[in-house]
Amino acid sequence: MKNECNIVRDLLPLYAENMVSDDTAAFVEEHFKECDACKKEYEKIKEPRSVQRNGEAASLQKLGRKLKIIRIRTVVFTAVFVTVLLVSAFAAVSAPIYSPYSEGLVTVEKSSDSKLTLIFDGNVTDFDCDLHDDPEYGDARVCDIEAWTTLWDKWFSKGGEKLSTAIECENKPLYLFYVPNDGGENICLAKYDPKAENQIEPDGETKGVITLPRLVLGYYLILAFAALILTVIVWLSVRKRQNIRLWTERVALYPVAYIISYFIISGINPTSYSINRDFSLAVFLSLLIYGGLLLAHNIWYLKKDIKAINRGKKF
């Protein structure tokens, strides 16, 4: 009987995996009827294997879901990255290149009793006219004129077509100034007086005023760095509390995104002559970058989770 038990116990691993012939299986099962010790030994072998297989199946199923999520997020992350590149390229090729003042750049003509027409040189592809009151000139109004082109227009525009616009004078004296946005003084193109005999008087004198670039983007950059430093301090104080730490990291990613977008739009220059355009692009680009950073952050933690599953630990 002892020899038979030794034979059966040698066969148990193969029997548990159904890797024995029918005759051997019948022999083992017949032995179980007479030997409780061998039967219990078989149950010890069989039960852990079943539990292990179920655990492995659950882990593999969970791992499959994690990998699927990673694939989806990787596709989205790639789409965000490509979009960021396209927006960055658009920002570069559409940035205004302001035209320095030269004779004939802007021509002023009277079109009616209450309107003046500005005609720009063919090299100008866009412009802006800011009509406003200025206490320095009493009842007269002031019109600041800017003109520019872009790399896109230089590369792809046929050129030659002259742009024009009409300015409402409202029967008040009007001073027309060209703003070169190059650190030089504004140029007085003409003075218009509806009561004078020669209503439009070419001037060409400087206004004695320099239009300075705006520093707002630089201030927002400082705020972004301050917010990043604050979130880092918070992270250091809560790093052992997983949920709060994760949310702190997600919040900290936006200042990082804005800082990146700022340098893409403005480079190392903290000033801007076209603040509305640059700030709008910086915010839009920062949101795209933030979405990409969030995806990267989630994927990184998913990979850590998968490694923990492979090690048989709970992350």
Topology at a glance:
Layout lengths: L1 H15 L5 H13 L1 H58 L3 E2 L7 E7 L2 E6 L5 E8 L7 E9 L1 H6 L7 E5 L5 E5 L6 E8 L7 E3 L3 E5 L5 H23 L3 H25 L8 H36 L5
Helix pairs in contact: 1-2, 1-3, 2-3, 3-7, 5-6, 6-7
Question: What would you say this structure looks like, in words?
Answer:
The chain is α+β, with helices and mostly antiparallel strands and 315 residues long. The chain has 3 domains: 2-58, no CATH class; 71-93 and 215-310, no CATH class; 97-210, no CATH class. It has 7 helices and 10 strands. It has helices at 2-16, 22-34, 36-93, 151-156, 216-238, 242-266, 275-310, and strands at residues 97-98, 106-112, 115-120, 126-133, 141-149, 164-168, 174-178, 185-192, 200-202, 206-210. The strands form 2 sheets. Strands 1, 4, 5, 7, 8, 9 and 10 form a 7-stranded mixed beta sheet that branches. Strand 8 (185-192) and strand 9 form a beta hairpin. Helix 1 (2-16) crosses helix 2 (22-34), helix 1 packs parallel to helix 3 (36-93) and helix 5 runs antiparallel to helix 6. The longest helix has 58 residues, at 36-93. The mean pLDDT is 81.
